[in-house]
Specification:
Layout lengths: L1 H33 L3 H6 L2 H14 L2 H23 L5 H7 L2 H6 L12 H6 L4 E2 L5 H8 L11 H9 L6 E5 L5 E6 L2 H4 E3 L7 E2 L1 E3 L8 H6 L5 H7 L3 H8 L6 E2 L3 H4 L12 E2 L20 H12 L5 E3 L10 H6 L3 E3 L9 H10 L12 H12 L4 H4 L12 E2 L1 H4 L14 E2 L23 H11 L6 H12 L2
Parallel strand pairs: 1-5
Antiparallel strand pairs: 2-3, 4-6, 7-8, 9-10, 11-12
Helix pairs in contact: 1-3, 1-4, 4-17, 15-17, 18-22, 21-22
Bound molecules: heme C (HEC) (2 copies).
Amino acid sequence: MKKKIVKLENRMSTYMRVSSLIAALAWAWFLAGISVDASEQQNVSEKTVKEKISENDEKSSENDLKIETNAQRMIIEGRRIFRFDTFGSEAFWGDALQLHKAIAGEKNGGVGDGVSPKTALSAGLKVDADALPPALQDQLKAGKASEVDLDNPATTVALIKLDAVVGVKGFFDDNGNLKSMGIQCALCHSTVDNSLAPGIGKRLDGWANRDLNIGLIVSLAPNLKPFSDLLEVDEATVKKVLTSWGPGRFDALLDKDGKAFRPDGGQAGTLIPPAFGLAGINLHTWTGFGSVPYWNAYVAATEMHGSGTFFDARLNDESQYPVAARSGSFNTRDTPDRITSKLAPLHLYQISIPAPRPDKDSFDEIAAVRGKDIFSDKAKCATCHVPPLFTEPGNNLHDPSEIGVDAFQADRSPTHMYRTAPLAGLWTHQKGGFYHDGRFASLRDVIQHYDEFLKLGLSEQEKSDLIEYLKSL
Ligand code: HEC
Ligand code: HEC
């Protein structure tokens, strides 16, 4: 009997430790998310947090602890999937497109010149410093990048072998030659903190990689036939479309509706949005296609070309989605299914990533406080961007005419609407511009647009204050 009690006590104390850790994480997340500006965040003292944690510990039942442990397990699993899972997409990027061959180059068993680390970095690929051997980290830290041959594609292959190229997974044969490659969510939705060198540093999961020229990279693939067959165009046209997007953009609808360019001839890709700060938000993507797990299944199965299941009868529409209706991709049923079982942890991981806070000295705090009032009062921004979510609780969609822009991209969505973009962490994705296609180059341009379209009558001072507030979110 006594033994049993001791055992239970041990178990409970393990539970308690795990629980404190989880409670601390949950609190950090809660505090980061709930405060509208930096000054409020500081009002919650560390003491209050500690008191809450111990209060929580005492009240936790075994069932509470089970729930917390489950959440922790799913977050860890979700992170692994987000960073490292290819969902079997190597069958497409490697085996079919042969993209790995263009990266390796002829001298390393591939084709053409190959892609050197310098070229890869200039195309926006990022290197995970933690995956590099310590000696190499030291060299880079000391600014001795010259000792590493950054002009040689063989170095790129070596980096891929180390799992150091963010979002790219290499598969090697017994002789160590690159034989295939797959891609991961982190390719587009992570960047690095540049702590060792530009493009080389610690991973920042969820940050939009606005440097990544994914279209250019894909256009290097020796075999573009899978695209030209699907779209029923020649390979030169495929290349033209892929290279039209530019850095930070990708077109996740091209393979559904075949719309390669806007009616005015402009590129049709959308900016890569962040995959952080998504908890509490109803609809996702620029045009509100669905929830996070909806979109994750869409992307993993039909864009990354992993092996799995995706179903959406809305896309079985010959007039809006001729390519999806023809190819049957609205009802993708690959076997084995390497996607469905991963959606739950992947979901929990993404909604657990807080929107990062800006540095205090990256904006004018006093102006930001004034800007906050303008945001909610005179400029009416908060009617749609409701703090602290900065999107509407409820059906967060708007007709293009409500925000004064054309309907091209909205009409590519089953919703025919634009989703009120959440603004927390806006400071991390200013490259490439704002709105779904980056049509407004700066925050001043965004505000100028609202001022004219909504006839707000903002003074120059009020506009500047609003900008400082947006930079503080
Ligand atoms: C090739 C680049 C690329 C890859 C790989 C990619 N995404 Fe995306 N992601 C995008 C783009 C572009 C959008 C915007 C789509 C749109 O609205 O037109 C997007 C949208 C999203 C959104 C919506 C964010 C919001 O605020 O609405 C989430 C969430 C997301 N992606 C998660 C993922 C996950 C998880 C994976 C891996 C399964 C993934 N993405 C793989 C480019 C990518
Ligand atoms: C009628 C609802 C509505 C109002 C009012 C509104 N917005 Fe928006 N906002 C949107 C929608 C919808 C989008 C997404 C547009 C797109 O995807 O092209 C957006 C996008 C933005 C973006 C771009 C975000 C990004 O990631 O690129 C910023 C910045 C922004 N709004 C700021 C403001 C400010 C500042 C105001 C007040 C002057 C304001 N909004 C008023 C609905 C609104």
